[in-house]
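Researcher: I'm preparing a figure for a lab meeting and need a structural model of a single chain. I don't have an experimental structure, so a prediction will have to do for now. The sequence is pasted below. Please return the structure as tokens so I can convert it later.
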Amino acid sequence: MKNIWWQTKGEGNCHLVLLHGWGLNAQVWDCITPELSSQFTLHLVDLPGYGRSEGFGALALPQMAEIVLSHAPQQAIWLGWSLGGLVASQIALQSPERVSALVTVASSPCFSAQGDWAGIKPAVLAGFQQQLSEDFQRTVERFLALQTLGTETARQDARQLKNAVLSLPMPLTEVLNGGLEILKTVDLREALGGLTLPFLRMYGRLDGLVPRKIVPLLDDMWPQSESLIFPKAAHAPFVSHPDEFCDALLALKARLV
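Model: Understood. Here is the structure written out token by token.
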């Protein structure tokens, strides 16, 4: 099996695995790792095909989850942002005994809008797929800009995400297309209803990619989970509101101990 890039830091007695979103890499967590590494043993991962985890093609969600899990500690809190939230959720479904708690950030069990379910219109995702082959870097930058729209620090937040992308090798078009395919087709709404482990869902009220309309629907669908909405955040609350974000994780850890 090919290796993925994996870095462990911090000396907390609780393991926390951080999974980034589409097009990005583990550098996105730089704004919160100093604070969290005093409280957790952090596991920073570049998902297969992203950042420093080169040599992978497009993967289906279960394959991606399997590869990441094979490098992980025996038990940890799994936190996934956006696409990473689907990977963390899939790991919780496949191997619940390895997950002490699941945290999803600005993520949806079904990113694609369908019927009365709010999400990204399939045509928008298909458009991104088409544009990737035409102007690869501009498409990724456009997607990053969408993630911070509406926040007080939008320009600065978008720059931070862009720097994380540009600091490392860009993923292959095939890998990015595979990620968009996961966002377009995966639906874990029903499967996650059966989870019994601690489950925290974090959202930004201004998020244009994961509409806040889905929050009360999932509260009803998954009464065993809890939700937290950051009022002035968009799709990257850990970038725009790092202190509040870390506080929420420390509160979760205190409940688990």
